Amino acid sequence: MSGEPGPDEYPVVTSRRVFDGRVIALRVDQVRMSDGAVAAREVVEHPGAVGVVALDERDRVILVRQYRHPVRGFLDELPAGLLDVPGESALAGAKRELAEEARLAADDWHALIDLHTSPGMTDEAIRVFLARGLRPAAEDGFAAEGEELTLTVSAEPLDEAVRRALAGEITNAAAVAGLCAAAVARAGGWAALRPADAPWPGWSG
Questions:
Q1: Does 148 qualify as catalytic in the annotation?
Q2: How far is CA 13 from CA 4, 17, 53, 175, in A?
Q3: Looking at residue 130, what DSSP letter applies?
Q4: What is the pLDDT of residues 40-77, one digit of tens each?
Q5: pLDDT tens digits for range 83-103
Q6: Which entry of 97, 148, 156, 169 is annotated as an active-site residue?
Q7: Which of 45, 99, 115, 122 could bond to 137 as cystine, CB 3.0-4.6 Å?
Q8: Please, are residues 33 and 12 in contact by the beta-carbon 8 Å criterion?
Q9: 136 with 58: CB under 8 angstroms?
Q10: Which of 55, 195, 37 is nearest to 131 (CA)?
């Protein structure tokens, strides 16, 4: 938006890394605010992720259900995963995740929606793709582990999935956003879809 302060008007005075984990890292930045005061901001660093709204020929969306330990429960989600393979594009990562989690490939790919999941505390960015023209994926030797061992896959009408999201039955943020975005895009005849390799300024990978 014109007239709003740019990031240079919130300079980082100091930055201290306090944790490095298998997936995320945590740093504490001392940031000078617009009034000159300095405030601490904790930032969870994240590699980025992709999700896939995969629609079959009957307008059903593919959902996976898996255990999520931080919320101590099973959630219905889109096929999704981290962008943690060096040199891998977002599109290639989405194709890999669809094949690994749902054993599916797709002939038609578009960028559907881009998200910053919780920008007050993390730089995590997610791109959700729309995949159509589904077919079985080639065997790739992927072996499930951890929570993936109890992951299940289902297909349900897109309208029903959107209803469940609006009813609070689907709460994964990327799934809710992706399902609703797909319904809106479908209502517009898919005219607003972007190419699968559209620029993604929100991801630094």
A1: yes
A2: 21, 14, 41, 37
A3: E
A4: 999 999 999 999 999 999 999 999 999 999 999 999 99
A5: 999 999 999 999 999 999 999
A6: 148
A7: 99
A8: no
A9: no
A10: 55
